[in-house]
Automatic annotation (TrEMBL):
InterPro entries the UniProt entry points to: DNA_primase_Znf_CHC2, DnaG_primase, TOPRIM_DnaG_bac, Znf_CHC2
Protein name: Toprim domain-containing protein
UniProt signal peptide: none
Any one GO biological process: DNA replication, synthesis of primer
Organism for this UniProt entry: Prosthecobacter debontii
Gene3D superfamilies associated with the record: 3.40.1360.10, Zinc finger, CHC2-type domain
């Protein structure tokens, strides 16, 4: 690798770099725009970080000035993150390089640009997983690899009037809107079937919840074979359609999420567990954008508090995050009253 480096004393205002330079400018400089397909505010195509080939794995939000890879590298972030990974540079040096390229009034050094950049790119290391994607989580890499393929069918004979749904505080309108109901056949026979959709609104699974206390030979929850729940955020397809006046609320379970939606918080998503996966971290960052607001409302138990602490630490690198302790009021978010949620959201 070339020994040319940037002066360590150069000042860099990261906030200014991110506000003055757009992701499209970066992509154009790398001649990547031609490889991406535009749909409204979004660009998508193969991932230029890990040299992927899937035409939908790399996604860019032009208005939020951020990007994410839903493929093998699982990375995402802002323009500095992109250049850092693309060039194999530390974060600060990537920001200085951006100043050289696009902010000559701020640049304090001169690069032998063509040779240095080419050398860095050709010797750049393979991008690592996001911080916290290992060690803190209880799933193997296989649980977070690939994609959950869309289903080729829908369950159309579910019984939406099962009393258990009312016992969990759901209205008929919510049950109908989300397509829940008792399944009468197949592997989910006897279970409440809950449709799960991906970020793009495509149905990828039905997960089952036994209505009430299950018999000894039945698990409380039942997942279809091959479904990787850590790749999805329940309700993310709807939450991203809601204006961001409210923070994105993150809870553990489906019923927590649906209750909060009913109470007037449609920007709520569920982890389907107590820990944040690397893929879910990407989905949240993409949903709120750089500096967006996230409120973690996990269960008031040891697993929930540990999961909230880990998630807050990881998300705080790019989002404004608050971990709300609901234990003063209830054990689970689905038990909260609206006035209690309002009080929690006012706390600092």
């Amino acid at each position: 690798m070339s020994t040319a480096t940037m002066p360590r004393g150069d000042f860099v205002d990261f906030k200014e770099v991110k506000s003055r330079i757009t992701i499209t400018q970066i992509l154009e400089r790398y001649d990547l725009i031609r490889t991406l397909k535009r749909s409204g505010d979004r660009l998508s195509g193969p991932c230029p970080i890990h040299r992927g080939t899937n035409p939908t794995q790399f996604r860019v939000s032009v208005s939020k000035n951020c990007w994410n890879c839903f493929g093998n590298c699982g990375r995402g972030g802002n323009i500095i993150d992109f250049v850092s990974l693309r060039e194999g540079l530390p974060f600060r040096e990537a920001a200085l390089l951006l100043q050289e390229w696009f902010m000559p009034d701020k640049a304090g050094s001169t690069l032998a640009e063509s040779s240095v950049v080419h050398s860095r790119r050709s010797h750049a290391p393979s991008p690592p997983l996001p911080e916290g994607a290992s060690g803190q989580q209880d799933a193997s890499e296989d649980d977070e690899a690939g994609e959950n393929p869309p289903l080729s069918f829908e369950l159309k004979t579910l019984k939406a009037d099962h009393p258990y749904l009312g016992e969990r505080g759901l209205t008929g309108a919510t049950v109908q809107s989300y397509g829940l109901g008792l399944c009468g056949r197949g592997c989910l026979r006897g279970y409440i079937a809950i449709p799960v959709k991906n970020r793009d609104g495509k149905l990828v699974a039905y997960i089952g919840r036994w209505p009430g206390t299950p018999p000894e030979d039945k698990p409380k929850y039942k997942l279809p074979k091959g479904f990787k729940k850590r790749l999805e955020l329940f309700n993310i397809d709807r939450a991203v359609q809601v204006p961001d006046e409210q923070p994105l609320l993150v809870v553990e379970g489906v019923f927590d999420c649906l209750r909060l939606v009913q109470l007037g918080y449609p920007r709520t998503v569920a982890l389907l567990g107590s820990s944040l996966s690397a893929r879910q971290e990407i989905l949240i960052r993409d949903a709120v954008g750089e500096g967006g607001q996230v409120c973690l409302m996990l269960d008031a138990d040891e697993a929930g508090r540990h999961g909230a602490s880990d998630a807050a630490s990881r998300l705080s690198r790019s989002c404004s995050v608050r971990a709300l302790d609901i234990g003063e009021y209830r054990h689970q978010p689905e038990q909260l009253e609206k006035v209690e949620i309002e009080a929690l959201l006012r706390t600092r």
